[in-house]
Amino acid sequence: MLRPARKEGPGQARGRPTRGHSSPAVSSRGRIQPDTISSIASGFWRISAATKWTTSRRETARLLCAWAHAQARDVTCLIAPPTKGSACLILVNSLCFVAMTSASRITIGSPQSLGTTGSVFAYGDRDDPARLVVLLADRVLTVCDQTSDAARNAKLCLEPRTPWRTRLQCLRSALHDAADGLDEPFIALWDVDALVSTETESWDQERASLLRRDILHLVRDAAAAGGWILVRTSRTHALATSTVFDDLDLEREIAPDTKEIPEEARLFAPECRPIASWLVERNILRPRDLAEVERTVERSEEHLVDLAYESLPPVARNAVSILTALRAPQGLNGHYGPLPFEAGALNASARSLPATTRALLVDSGLIQRTWVSGPWRMPRIVRARLAQLALMTVGVELEEVHRSQAEPGANTDAEALVEAHYHAICTGDIELSKRTAVYYGSELSEVATRLSLGSQDVEELSEKKRLFTAAANLFHHVVTNFDDTDAYAWEYYGYNLARAESADTTEILGAYRRAFALRPGNPLYHGRLLGFRAQLGQSIVEETIVNVRQYALNAPERESVSFFVEAVMKGLWRGAQRQQAHKILTACHALLERLAPRTLQKAAWVRVSA
Amino acid sequence: MYLLGPGVGETIVVVLPDGRIVVVDSCEQAGVNLAASLLTELGVKRIDLLIVTHPDLDHVRGLTTLLHEFDPVRVWRHPFGLLREILAMLSNATDATHYTRHKQAVAGAVALDEHLTERGLVDDVTYGKVWAPPGASYAVHALAPTSYDTKRARDRVRGLIEKRHGRWLLSAHAKRWLDDDAPLGDLPNMVSLGVAIEWGQRRLILAGDIENGDGGPYSGWTGVLDHLDRGDDGRGRLVDDVDLIKVAHHGSARSFSRAAWERHARASKTLGVVTTYSPSRLPDRVTLEALRVHCSRLGVAADAGDAFDRAMEAGWVVADTGQPAPESLAPCLKVVFGEGGRPHVYRGRPAGWFE
Asked: A601 touching B, CB under 8 A?
């Protein structure tokens, strides 16, 4: 596709001027004058940006023609057949320009074969954004010239200190450049629907959904430019996934099912069909029951997973529960990944699985092949549904599996390293988690958060302080060794230092200030900053009143006012600033009554004093 | 068909035309398993189909006796997976001594589950399951629960644990339930099996504790009717013009579905039988009044408490069955169906018979 000429040199937008009429047979491998292509491409991208890719390629072409006509005489624009990639033929003053990349496509179900296309999996887990940036960058490095800009950008994505925004920009460039040089798709992103955020965006939890949104947009844009296979094996119910991908003007293919299944099983997502089919084979449901389930049961695929799980004998239930610890595709040849199937084993453990369970796990569809002769994996919907229960039923075994897998051993490829880190995070072991954090620190924040929240379970003050201090130290580790633009880590570094009653108030205030500067729209961060200033005795009345009104206008539906003012009030209470609190409550009473009634209820201490 | 109900508990024994035996649920009175006692009196050695409608104690007490002494050929059970989940949660509850009673109870249920599962005897049944022995002139059809209610119940169970501080723990409600401070509500009844037995033109409905559900189109009785009428196999007939109905959930107003009853007694009033549940004063008066619209006769199998008084307050009049009392010691109603004509009813001494 014609691109803006971001920089000069190999790997940028391609095309070849020819004289005469354009033809789809024109080679896509030529070069054109940079200034000409830059001019055309910038116009093209203006149009693309304006339409936000919500229009079809044909509509984009129409807009492009209109633009080109406005810029020069004698302009013709032709669009190559969509199946041939993102190709564009443009005639400007009898010069024909051709730009082309390998088409992206959406595959519904598991492709039979991927050829040389590398696979990257989305899991729907919290670490998807950070993990995928690393794995996609790693994929770029495997296909491009190591001295190219694409490689340089990809390597930057792997640097632990590279800020998130920079990573995204670098990856975006790297992916575009890598796609330029290839005739075949180079990335298959599996279960792309897992990237759709399912989390509610409360102000204290917004980080996860923001990162997820970022990576989803990046994938969409990169796929639109070519070189991708987006594999859709499951669906995400929280949002209308169709609107996320269906407006991408990509070729679509429906992969055949790997075995004969009842027609009614096709009502479900591809990953769920083997499960539905097995339920019928086992006489647990009739084919017509599948249709009834689909018609009447909300999140019907979860229901089928539950039925399959519940239909297994206890030993197999334990086995599949333990396997929820392993999310990456695994070999299945006497072992499932690290766990051997042993003939003599009577029950599933963290070290082996009974041989009798292997066939059951496969037949039931709870473990499935990724593609023909490819590795095996537990579908996302299965893992998501069973993992919660597994923590209750085989928690000890899960911990042991995670611990055993937290050391990557001799395998130092990016995927092995990020997976080892994932397992380390699951153990909650601080040192192990720090040691395995090679590329990013965002998951360490999760361990720190658990420490901080764990303080609520303990009575003894010194133990509380110990936990807060440990959490603060870990957040500090994140911002000093990884992304120093991580607003969440700065915020909770300050918060935990404050809860640990650190005497270093300058450090606390600095952390709060940094968090708010990085994420100025977050009323919780803002409220904590003002609250801490109040705790230090500073006057915050006017500033608070102005901002209460501002938040009431900006995002009242997200409880901005509550988050903001409650954090402020806590600071005032800690600093015994009753006068200030009274003034704020008096000035904002009507607004608070409407938008933050809980805050008013909690403010008895102010009224008593007043 | 024998309906036994001691006041707290319910069990039904059906002797089919070819002599096969169906038993629905299990209950005890003064330590005696009523179904086992009756089966022994009848000289029965083996149960052909044992149906466990739902996991409430008044329907499962003494179940192991039936399993051990009458070696059922097959067992239909309510969806059990969600109960397993409760058991899993209980076995991991942190306050071990406090929940010992629950742990012991569930350990028994788990052992039974494993025993049945290993022997391949048990089917977890939802709407649509049919048992029709080869050559038999009858069939037993599962009417409930619907998949919708099964999922609803499972989601409710999952709500008993919640994620706190990165860990999954018992919810406050679950703890209150374990402390006996809060009920589980309608959870067990959500998954209650109900069956229809069809024999020629005869139709019996043994409705377990099916309730009206959440009011949605696929839940409770509404869901049952939706499913029956949707198929092209004419299964809707199973609830139309029924000869006898074991009233759902001891005659609770939560289980009375006007739409269903209008179909049960479309051409003419039908015969209703009900067991009492004394602690909740079931059947309740509202249901007893409503049943008068649809039932010509009503049997109450009970060591009655004040249930007979409520029936009479609702307008029912004590009647004579015209048959001698059955031999059983249990509070029991016995209804015998021939190929046609009115069924013969036998009333055990503590039971009530009304017109």
From this structure: no
